[in-house]
Amino acid sequence: MEMIPEITLDGLRELMISRLSLDMEPEDIVPDMSLLQDLGLDSVDLLEVAIGIERTYKIKITQNDTAAFATLQSLYDFCREQGLATVK
């Protein structure tokens, strides 16, 4: 059985930086930073992040889950909730 990595803030930061080729360090992305306004991500970027999360953490993300992409913290909280739901 495939091991699914633990969902962490650092893991999400690294996923975003690698999938979007962002020229920044993980610690530059703070939990309450707006992904759209502060990081300047657009809908294509968010889709790319969603795909990365689905593949890495085996979490299903739908169009109804877009509010989760407001900040790094809201994305982390969403992923933790979904990750725990899939384990049960």
Automatic annotation (TrEMBL):
Gene3D superfamilies: ACP-like (1.10.1200.10). SUPFAM superfamilies: ACP-like. Signal peptide: none annotated. It comes from the Bacteria. Residues 6-83 form the Carrier domain. This is Phosphopantetheine-binding protein. The lineage of its organism: Bacteria, Bacillati, Actinomycetota, Actinomycetes, Micrococcales.
